[in-house]
Amino acid sequence: MENKRFAVIALLLTVNLLAVVYGITVTQTALENQVLLARAIDDRGDTIIRTLDIHGAWMDQQSEDILALMKAADGQTEAIQLLTDANLAVAQEIKVYQDYIFYLSGQLLETPETQAKFDVHLRAEIHRDGELIDSWEHPGLLTTTGLNWIEDQLGDSPSTTPAINLRVSTSTQTPQAAWTGLPGEITAYGLAKADGTYTSTGDGEWEVSHQWTATAEVSANLAGVHWDGSAGNGTLLCSDQMLLAALQANDTLTLTYTLTVVSGS
Q1: What is the average pLDDT across 171-185?
Q2: Quick check: 157 and 251 in contact, CB under 8 A?
Q3: CA-only gyration radius of the chain, Å
């Protein structure tokens, strides 16, 4: 476990250094949260290390791509544009990486002031021949449509259809609060929309999960929860991006959304 602590601290320092290079502001509070996270990983160490490894490998590849583009630039406009795009991609990934660390900080330290009033969290796993080959954990993004639906549920005209319909997409777009549905939703390959299984996990906390079996090679890059499985767009409660390996035929994809109502302070 001591090695895990050193690994986490080293990776956090690397992320913050890259953040400075790409102009991402890191506040003193954020740094303190990350240090506290490194000290509190005893219970969640394996999960954190696995997630950091996924991000680290991705950023290593981006760094190699950037170096290759720099060598090939030679003043060519197209190559320079590709380099710029790669820089932006790395900066965006660093931001996602830090957001995930901040989320774990709040969960591990259980400080209400650092947690949202309504929290959505996604865990995705890919298994091949019964073995876990990839996983992803990340806080989800509530849509504006989803916020209004929650308001209706509590104060106006509640729906009789629960938010348990799970869908995935091939799109690599960054989730937006304005979305009403997932762009590029997968409707074939064994990954069509499906109602998940609801499980209560405590007071004001529940999970919605489902497992698909892929019938062909496909990349699932986005996930979302809807409250009406029979509808198209217009019922998206929340969405999240996934950095996962491509699915092969007979691979299983398991999504587990954890939704929590936090009392706060």
Answers
A1: 94
A2: no
A3: 19
Q: Which of 4-13, 100-109, 234-243 has the lowest mean pLDDT?
A: 4-13
d(CA 128, CA 247): 9
Average pLDDT across the chain, whole number: 76
Domain limits, the chain: 2-111, 116-261
- Band the pLDDT of 182: cuts 50, 70, 90: very high
Global confidence as pTM: 0.60
d(CA 44, CA 50): 10
| Rounded CA separation 242/220 (Å) | 7
Which tokens belong to 192? 């069509």
Of 88, 70, 92, nearest to 80 (Cα)? 70
* Amino acid at the residue 108: L
Distance of alpha carbon 229 from alpha carbon 227, whole angstroms: 7
DSSP class of 126 = E
Element (H, E) at 57: helix 45-73
CA dist 192 and 186 (Å) reads 6
Beta bridge partners of 224: 167, 239
- Cβ-contact 182, 169 below 8 angstroms: yes
Query: Of how many residues is the chain composed?
Result: 265
Please tell me what DSSP assigns to residue 263: -
Q: What are phi and psi for residue 144, nearest 5 degrees?
A: -65, -40
How many Å apart are CA 139 and CA 103, to the nearest integer?
7
Q: What is the pLDDT of residue 5?
A: 47
